[in-house]
From TrEMBL:
Source species taxonomy: Bacteria, Pseudomonadati, Bacteroidota, Chitinophagia, Chitinophagales
InterPro entries for the chain: Glcn_transporter
Bilayer-spanning residue ranges: 26-43, 55-76, 96-129, 136-154, 174-197, 218-238, 250-268, 289-309, 329-354, 366-389, 401-422
Membrane topology: Multi-pass membrane protein
GO CC terms of this entry: plasma membrane
Protein family according to the UniProt entry: Belongs to the GntP permease family.
Primary site of residence: membrane
The name this protein goes by in its record: Gnt-I system high-affinity gluconate transporter
Keywords from the named record: Cell membrane, Membrane, Transmembrane, Transmembrane helix, Transport
An annotated Gene Ontology molecular function: gluconate transmembrane transporter activity
Keyword Transmembrane in annotation: yes
Keyword Lyase: no
Subcellular location: Cell membrane
Length: 426
């Protein structure tokens, strides 16, 4: 019965988000209250449960998400992202231009949020398409696959960071495993799959034609690469070195990286500190709604926890003939297909399978990746990314489904396969 009630509550959440068009934060709060009443949580305890869930979830994540947003915004605004892309293009040359763009998308996708990375990379993709007269989807899709994978698998992106906290995983170890899973997934869903898309028809591609170049000098090549990738290096190093509660803490690592970036991509580039701080202010605005969505999911998770239903569901799931990692992936995939948001799919599924992880039935670091892979499955008409790709590349609905939607599905399946392979090795 417990599972039926929770399934109905998830269905209500999906209806409010899709049919009702409600703001995700409001939808989560409404469903959390309904869940509490339905699961016999004393009414007078529900407000406290909402506050505790929001505080516990956002409190541990606010620093790393806001600092990550600030760093990503500065990488974009300073021109470092463009320098990374240009350098790779020059290094690989016209013959391997697809791979150059893919690597650029992967590197840029680590510090940048998906929407920012998408908007940043698309003009570069189109400049290559015009210059070399190459098929648009064939060239562009691998780059966007790389952005999608970093968004779903790798910290400091919102969903992986939330999942690391909920499963008590290790941020650095999750990042190392994530890279091992992400790289093959990007190659399969990108260049390998794109080989069948060379003849896919597109409409007239006039977007970004004759787009103006960056008006101020770009940061140096070494400066751009090292600053963008510094969080990755430091998080991996803190995993390998002896544990230190201060220097090994992910928010402290991100704060250090942001201070370095403020100097290397700001002051060193003769950008006034006031202008850099203004960039950071804009970054916080960009991430505010993401934090609210995460907060709402935390409220729902806490209500389910206080009702005891999470433990009941975990007990039931233990008897299912499905591997816990596959179960987490499947739940995230179903919610993703219904809701469209990878972040919502990931953090909602996490609340369902967290008890299994905390009881030791699955490796927490691998569960982060498994749920993340599921949250990227089959993007279709309810996903903003689907429409961005369709409109930017001027595709028909059918060809968007045949290219973008299949690419996202391949990413999700390849991600799960990589996780299961790691599970047999670790």
């Amino acid at each position: 019965m417990a599972f039926v009630i929770v399934a109905c509550c998830i269905a209500l959440l999906i209806l409010l988000l899709t049919w009702g068009k409600l703001n995700a934060f409001l939808a989560f709060l409404i469903v959390a209250i309904v869940s509490g009443i339905w699961l016999n949580v004393p009414v007078q305890k529900i407000p406290a449960a909402l506050q505790k869930g929001i505080g516990d979830t956002v409190g541990s994540l606010m620093m790393i998400l806001t600092l990550g947003a600030m760093l990503g915004k500065l990488v974009a605004e300073s021109g470092a992202a463009k320098q990374i892309a240009n350098t790779l293009m020059q290094t690989f040359g016209p013959r391997y231009v697809q791979w150059a763009l893919l690597i650029a998308g992967f590197i840029i996708g680590i510090p940048l949020y998906y929407g920012v990375g998408f908007v940043l990379m698309v003009p570069l993709i189109f400049s290559v398409i015009y210059q070399y007269k190459l098929p648009a989807v064939y060239i562009g899709l691998p780059t966007l696959a790389a952005l999608s994978v970093t968004h779903g698998f790798l910290p400091p992106h919102p969903s992986p960071v939330v999942l690391v906290g909920q499963f008590n995983a290790n941020m650095g170890l999750t990042l190392m495993y994530g890279l091992a899973v992400a790289i093959p997934a990007v190659i399969i869903a990108g260049p390998v799959f794109a080989r069948w898309l060379k003849k896919i028809p597109t409409g007239p591609l006039q977007l970004f034609k004759g787009n103006t170049e960056h008006t101020k000098p770009l940061p140096g090549k070494l400066n751009s690469f090292l600053t963008a990738l510094l969080p990755v290096f430091l998080l991996m190093i803190t995993t390998i070195l002896p544990k230190n509660n201060f220097t090994g803490d992910a928010p402290i690592v991100m704060l250090f990286c942001l201070l370095i970036a403020t100097f290397t991509l700001g002051i060193l580039q003769q950008t006034p500190v006031k202008a850099v701080m203004s960039t950071y202010t804009e970054a916080v605005k960009d991430v505010a709604m993401i934090l609210l969505i995460i907060a709402g999911a935390g409220a729902l998770k806490e209500v389910l926890a206080q009702s005891g239903v999470s433990e009941q569901i975990a007990m039931e799931m233990q008897t299912w003939p499905i591997h816990p990692l596959v179960l987490g992936w499947l739940m995230a995939a179903i919610i993703r297909a219904c809701v469209g948001s990878a972040t919502i799919a990931g953090i909602t599924a996490a609340g369902m399978v967290a008890p299994l992880v905390l009881k030791g039935y699955a490796d927490p670091n691998l569960m982060v990746l498994s749920v993340g892979a599921g949250s990227l499955m089959f993007s279709h008409v309810n996903d903003a990314g689907f429409w961005m790709f369709k409109e930017y590349f001027n595709l028909s609905l059918k060809n968007t489904l045949l290219s973008w939607s299949i690419m996202e599905t391949i990413v999700g399946i390849a991600g799960l396969a990589g996780v299961l392979i790691l599970d047999t090795i670790i």
